[in-house]
Amino acid sequence: MPHATSHADVATVELDSALRGGPFHVALRAAIAARGLPLQRVQHHLSRHGVKVGVTSLSYWQQGARRPQRPESLRAVRALEEILHLPEESLIRLLAESGEDPAGRRSAGRSYRSLVEATGVVERLLDELGAPRDSGLHTLGQHERVRIGARRELADREAHHIVRAHRDGVDRFVAVHHGDPGSAPERMTVHALENCLVGQVRRHQDTGVLAAELLFDTRLRAGDTFLFRYAVEDGTAGVSHEYVRGTDSPGGQYALQVSFDAGALPVRCHRFTQHSAAAPRAGRQELALSGRHCSVHLVEPRMRSGYVGIAWDWE
Predict the structure, then answer these.
(1) Half-sphere exposure of 304 toward its Cβ, with a 13 Å CA cutoff?
(2) Strand, coil or helix: what is 235?
């Protein structure tokens, strides 16, 4: 006998299709329908997650009449993914991929070509420095602080690393800095701040990439941990719109803080992730600017391969 297709089967198929192709409001509507929840129940579940959203807003979201934009609304979307038993960041990804910005001021992101070119340049500079692809170090934690100056330029970057050696004899680390478009690596300066000294430095003008050896004062044995800190003085490019950190291997905790000059504050900031140079950006989340410290930050409990960063829009 032919198999009868149930309403639940149809709803599941429609949901799978909507989650793959979007748009956001269609996926949200399909997810709510597949779970058979009235909007009042959805609102109740959201309140149990500590998020307040009106039934009217939920209705507008699933009709496409409005999009979640405020930080509270984006928290609601993440909670909806859990409430509706959806894959993590599935709805957030559709919001990010829609490419809509109500103010028409989307941040200028690094292009696929620039990311790929920079990767090739970094490999070439590592060869020039005689650095192996496997540094012998595993990152347990990394904290970066980026300062945007009064001219809206990337003024400098400070990095604090906590690493563990996984082989004997490791005595250095190669730091890489990728300046904004138009930057001049020959005018950048590397400063060793704690437990290291600056060794050889290589620069690539066209891509704005700088690679510098940081020499430790000891040779690590397998299992040893080590802390070091350095900074790169930049300020050589024009207006900055984002800071991106990329890695090709998983690591420990990563924290990024971007601080702005009090006289030149952006109108909005958001975090994002990107699985590869060719992948669309996802995981967009609005970040509230701290009034006192003029900064925003993100924390990744465990760094995954790919890219993570913070972008901002100017008036």
Answers:
(1) 7
(2) coil
Please indicate, yes or no, whether residues 209 and 277 belong to a single structural domain of this protein: yes
Tell me the C-alpha distance between 260 and 150, whole Å: 8
Full residue range of the structural domain in which residue 244 is found: 112-313
Task: List all residues 6 or more positions away from 311 whose beta carbon is below 8 Å from its beta carbon.
Answer: 107, 109, 241, 242, 269, 270, 271, 272
| Nearest Cα residue to 118 out of 183, 173, 191 | 183
Same domain, 173 and 265: yes
The pLDDT of residue 122: 87
Domain membership of residue 25 (yes or no) is yes
Is 312:107 a contact under the CB 8 Å cutoff?
Answer: yes
Does residue 229 carry a pLDDT above 90? Answer: yes
- What is the chain's length? 315
Beta-bridged to residue 9, according to DSSP, are none
Same domain, 120 and 64: no
Cβ burial of 80 (10 Å; 0-12, 13-18, 19+) is buried
Amino acid at residue number 163: V
Distances (CA, A) of 93 to 116, 120, 128, 256, 291: 23, 28, 39, 21, 29
pLDDT of residue 68: 82
Q: How many CB atoms lie within 10 A of CB 291?
A: 9
Distance (Å, whole) CA 237 – CA 231: 17
Q: How many domains does the chain have?
A: 2
What would the two tokens of residue 122 be? 């970094």
* Torsion angle, alpha carbons of 238, 148, 307, 212, to 10: 80
Task: Tell me: pLDDT of 107 over 50.
Answer: no
pLDDT at 154: 97
Yes or no: say if 91 and 293 are a contact pair by the CB < 8 Å rule: no
